[in-house]
Design brief:
By secondary structure, the chain is mainly alpha-helical. Helix content is 54%, strand content 4%. The protein has 19 helices and three strands. Strands 1-3-2 form a three-stranded mixed β-sheet, sandwiched between helices. The longest helix is centred in the first third of the chain and has 23 residues. The chain is globular. The termini are far apart.
Length: 392
């Protein structure tokens, strides 16, 4: 029988990694196909796992293997303290999938910062600001000018997916990392952000429709501008700040004004009279023209005092019972290179590939940062060099 060689891992690191993944002992042992009593002994320091068993735990906890060989659990790499608190989401009540998505986004942001540092370059930073007491129409105009996309550009896009890619690219060009995640319920998260720079992060849920993700980009970008101006929502692991709700409302107002500028928006509204009465075919037609969801359109009309909030509330209750847009039906999902670039973002993927080319990033790190096997790397390179990332 082969001799069992224990790995030199510290028990507190095993406990920390499991708890941060949101798993209890039974769940962790089952997912890793390990004996629960053995895991208990490892965490108590009575015994140690083998390297192979640590690998299993690393895969289940979604942590780099090297983390388990630190002297003590890291305290400066906590996504809970970096991402802004989401409405109605309480710390440590998040799903395992939600915690993993936050952690992966933070990990990639830190990796990007390290790569810039290895290049001896300063990462881009968003310096523009916004304040909650500003006129939303003025801030909305500033946002649109900052992103460099005109109303005519917006009308010319042929689909919401094309619009999503264009808005995402425009935000990424000014120093924001936009990541997408999957397997997180829309009831738990549509989007969130790590608003402090350099390299602030917007995290989208690609279970949402392109229309929903478009508005989320603007909402989270508004949070980034507010954070640059010194107005931060509370972190996930802190107490809720009294200003949190105000900043949520303000971000919605700024996003709506940027995405639907008053004069241009009302000009099209006048050509679709059914919109004012909440006629659904008219709202869908409007949504198709400007690539904004019907609900956001009607809410904008409420803010402009063109329709009553009572009508909006009645419509919204009805809409909550069924989606505007049917769920996408896919067989087998997109090709691996499309998925990688769509979820990690073209700027981040390009940065990692450049670091690899300059021998600043190892092959192991490339695989870890992008979540892809090296055999697919050439396909990822061609995807980055070719078309913009798909809105999968």
């Amino acid at each position: 029988m082969a001799r069992r060689i224990p790995a030199l891992v510290q028990a507190p690191l095993l406990v920390w990694a499991r708890k941060m993944s949101g798993l209890d002992l039974h769940e962790a042992a089952a997912k890793a196909d390990l004996d629960e009593n053995a895991l208990i002994h490892w965490e108590q320091g009575d015994d140690r796992p083998t390297l192979g068993e640590v690998r299993k735990l690393a895969e289940v906890y979604k942590r780099p293997l090297a983390v388990f060989f630190l002297d003590k659990p890291p305290k400066d790499f906590d996504a809970q303290r970096e991402f802004r608190r989401l409405p109605d989401v309480n710390v440590f009540d998040e799903s395992v999938e939600m915690r993993l998505a936050l952690r992966r986004a933070l990990y990639r942001r830190e990796a990007a910062r390290e790569i810039y540092d290895s290049f001896h370059e300063v990462p881009p930073s968003v310096t523009d600001t916004a304040n909650p007491d500003e006129d939303p129409e003025i801030v909305g105009g500033r946002i649109r000018a900052l992103l460099g996309i005109t109303w005519n550009d917006q009308l010319a896009w042929e689909s919401a997916s094309i619009a999503l890619n264009a808005w995402r690219n425009s935000v990424e060009k000014i120093g924001v990392l936009v990541f997408q995640t999957s397997r997180v319920s829309l009831k738990e998260m549509r989007a969130t952000s790590m608003p402090r720079g350099p390299l602030p992060v917007i995290l989208l849920n690609n279970a949402d429709s392109p229309y929903g993700r478009i508005f989320s980009i603007f909402h989270e970008f508004a949070h980034i501008l507010l954070a640059s101006g010194g107005h931060l929502t509370s972190p996930m692991d802190g107490e809720r700040l009294p200003i949190d709700r105000l900043l949520e409302r303000v971000s919605n107002a700024f996003a709506a004004a940027a995405l639907m500028p008053r004069n241009e928006f009302l000009s099209i509204t006048s050509k679709l009279p059914g919109v004012m009465s909440g006629d659904e075919p008219s709202l869908l037609r409007f949504a198709d023209i400007i690539k904004v969801s019907p609900e956001a359109i009607l809410r904008r009309l409420v803010s402009l005092r063109k329709v009553s909030s009572k009508m909006y509330d009645e419509k919204r209750r009805k809409w909550q019972k069924r989606p505007w847009f049917p769920a996408r039906k896919t067989k087998g999902g997109p090709p691996v290179e499309v998925r990688i670039v769509a979820n990690a973002g073209k700027p981040f993927v390009s940065l990692v590939l450049e670091g690899y080319r300059r021998s600043k990033v190892s092959s192991t790190d490339v695989s870890d940062y992008l979540g892809v096997q090296l055999k697919y790397l050439d396909r990822v390179k061609r995807q980055v060099a070719g078309n913009p990332p798909s809105a999968v």
